[in-house]
Amino acid sequence: MVIPCYNDGAFVHEAVDSALAQTHALADIIVVDDGSTDPATLIALKSVERDGVVVHRQENLGLPAARNAGIRQASGDYILPLDSDDRIGPHYAEMAAGVLDGDPDVGIVGGQIEFFGMREGRVNPTYNGIEGMLFENCLYTCSVTRRADWATVGGYPEGARFAEDWIYWLRILGLGRSVHLLEEVVWFYRQRPGQMTRSMDSRTASTAVIQAMRDQPDLYAAHMDVVTDYLESKTMVLDSFRRRYGRANDLLARVLPLVRSVSR
């Protein structure tokens, strides 16, 4: 298990405790200190280290690089990433390992999510094939993958400014892997002010799509019918806005050249 941490000392103990409580013995629990500067966080990380958890320290390189650094330090066959302010259910590692042990075609194992913090509720992710993942991330951060697949695809995209988990899932799916979603709640997702997933606007979302297309052009080219349908729907929306407001060319101008290059 890999837990990146940047100035999250108030919560990191909860994340680590949920890892230590797993019914399936974890090969490693590695906390990656991604250049934390907060004194309380530095104290918390020293406390975690005294509990026998490995703490890998590095300069602040961002979340994808922190995850990759922790995975390089790990020795297990499977990767379970956990953000430092979240928790996992005690049976998650056991259930995920059972699925991956039993089916070599499965590349991603996730499950149901429960929110806590400033918002409560439950989400039941669905996966209906790779076509549904091309323009929307249907999976969540705390999903389990194979270390061998991580190595094959080059890990998490360290150049991505956001949506790095989405691009990573697409890299894994590009290997021909399938997805298995457990019916149990396995991830407890803390809701806090300022989260990217809560504040992503249309421009940010379109940029995420462009990042994914640039990272996986062959994958998108292989599903050009889905790409065409997506563009047609966006064009209809833009035409509607153009008629109403006279200015809505930005998204189309950014996406079309990339799609043309992927088609070529």
UniProtKB/TrEMBL annotation:
Keywords: Transferase. One of its GO terms (biological process) is single-species biofilm formation. Residues 2-123 form the Glycosyltransferase 2-like domain. One of its GO terms (molecular function) is transferase activity. InterPro entries: Glyco_trans_2-like, Glycosyltransf_2, Nucleotide-diphossugar_trans. This is Glycosyl transferase family 2.
